[in-house]
Design a protein that fits this description.
8-stranded parallel beta sheet; mainly beta; flat
């Protein structure tokens, strides 16, 4: 967990924030360093050889498997041995913290999921999906490849993926959502502003009832459908939101939130 997240686990606090990080991590394949073998007495060597021939089990000391688990200044770091050959496996880390904590999670490859209400959230992965339930303040979700999902964003937020869809339930702050290839979907634009950009994919935005949007939408191939262009709710005096939508290939569809 990131700075200010408190202890890594708090079972007494209610409500609470739960974070799951599933990482295609590396499991150490330990090989002891090359060292000169000590010379054994001649009779000891013969005794061991004879035991092998008779099928007896000969004890060999195993190299110690190293795990480093540190909690520096409220953060969690898991380190693996340095300089050893590695193969991939799946590592799942579950963290429970008080509500309104500030998770700051990063993985090279794997998905990150945070349930509950976060004060701020910073989630990063090189390849994998990101899932955030609620954020009251600043949020940043960034993945190289994979989908991004956020339930409710009440503050400024930046959502990025190189390839994958972006799905947001409710927008109440200043939000930008960019994807290289994939769909951008927002269930309810209730306040603030939204910038939705995709190179190839559809953009769907629902605007909350009683809110009047200022729309700037463009599609290179696919067209723009604005169901609110002549909506009676888009009148003077209604709360206003800003919407900017851009897609190179795909339709832009703006309608009332369900």
């Amino acid at each position: 967990m990131g700075r200010g997240s408190g202890s890594a686990r708090s079972d007494t606090a209610r409500p609470r924030l739960c974070a799951r990080l599933r990482h295609r991590a590396a499991r150490p394949r330990l090989r002891p360093r090359t060292r000169p073998r000590p010379q054994r007495p001649r009779d000891d060597t013969r005794r061991r050889s004879g035991a092998r021939r008779r099928g007896a089990r000969v004890h060999r000391p195993r190299s110690r498997r190293h795990r480093d688990l540190l909690l520096p200044e409220g953060g969690l770091r898991i380190a693996l041995p340095h300089g050893h050959p590695l193969w991939t496996t799946t590592l799942t880390v579950d963290i429970t913290a008080p509500a309104l904590s500030r998770p700051h999670l990063r993985t090279g490859s794997g998905f990150v999921s945070v349930t509950g209400t976060a004060a701020t959230a910073h989630l990063h992965t090189g390849a994998g999906s990101l899932d955030l339930e609620r954020a009251e303040g600043e949020a940043e979700l960034d993945t190289g490849t994979g989908s991004v999902r956020a339930g409710r964003l009440a503050g400024p937020a930046r959502l990025r993926t190189g390839s994958g869809s972006i799905d947001v339930g409710t927008v109440e702050g200043e939000v930008s959502a960019h994807t290289g290839t994939g769909m951008v979907s927002v269930g309810s634009l209730a306040a603030g502003s939204l910038e939705a950009v995709t190179t190839s994919g559809e953009i769907r935005v629902g605007v909350r009832d009683g809110v009047s949007p200022d729309v700037d939408a463009h599609s290179g191939a696919g067209g723009v459908r604005d169901d609110l262009a002549h909506d009676s709710a888009s009148r003077a005096g209604a709360p206003r939101v800003r919407l900017r939508a851009r897609t190179g290939s795909g339709r832009v569809w703006i309608t009332r939130a369900a």
